[in-house]
Write a structure and sequence with these properties.
This protein is an alpha/beta fold. The protein contains 9 helices and 7 strands.
């Protein structure tokens, strides 16, 4: 049964009671606050009325990509360490490194302290990029000693360029060492790894596509 307040609202808004109407009531505001606190750990994209349709769709897509990236990281952590090594090479190839698959070589072995892979940017292998991939827990940290060991492996392969990929994070000391060492190093942590996978369609596929249409101005200028 409707309360007198509910009947009054229906009389004032006989056609539609939408969110703008509900937001006038403190009870609804309290409900929204409790719901937000309950789902605080889950990021939610709020689409503003001030955004254009294309901007609104873009915001929703970016939010879905962030969720997908987090799911990818969980799936990678369920795989054996060698999976990340080959995955890193697939990603680099998708990004345009190495060109043909034959120019990317998986060299990692169980317990191997050397490089996990090499990318030959030219057919003669004169332009070489070394790859190291370490599967760690999300909150585990790759420290400076790991990067120093990586530099030693690059020197052994006679190259001065390398990509270090991990499902964990890099310590400030590791990042600083990578920036200051006389080599071109690129550090990719778990968050960036999965975002790059989404961007370059590695381990993901397009589920749906939508056509966002607008008025064809030329039609009305004839």
């Amino acid at each position: 049964m409707l309360s007198e307040r509910g009947k009054s609202v229906l009389q004032e808004h006989p056609e539609r009671v939408d969110l703008k109407v509900l937001q006038q009531f403190s009870e609804y505001q309290d409900f929204r606050t409790r719901k937000s606190e309950k789902n605080a750990e889950k990021p939610v994209t709020v689409v503003s009325d001030e955004l254009s349709p294309s901007e609104a769709v873009g915001a929703l897509v970016e939010d879905s990509y962030d969720t997908l990236a987090a799911e990818l990281l969980d799936r990678i952590l369920l795989q054996p360490p060698a999976f990340l090594e080959t995955l890193s090479l697939k990603l680099l190839r998708a990004m345009g490194y190495g060109g043909r698959e034959s120019l990317l070589e998986h060299t990692g072995k169980p317990g191997d302290s050397g490089l996990d892979g090499v990318v030959r940017q030219d057919a003669l292998g004169l332009d070489l990029v070394g790859v190291q991939a370490k599967r760690y827990d999300k909150d585990s940290t790759v420290g400076r000693p790991d990067i120093q060991a990586f530099v030693g492996a690059l020197q052994g392969a006679q190259t001065s360029r390398g990509v270090f990929v991990t499902t964990g994070k890099f310590s400030p000391g590791a990042k600083q060492f990578a920036e200051n060492v006389a080599m071109r190093l690129r550090l990719i942590d778990g968050m960036e790894l999965t975002k790059l996978m989404v961007r370059y369609n590695v381990g993901v596929q397009v589920r749906e596509t939508f056509d966002l249409k607008q008025i064809d101005e030329e039609t009305f200028e004839e």
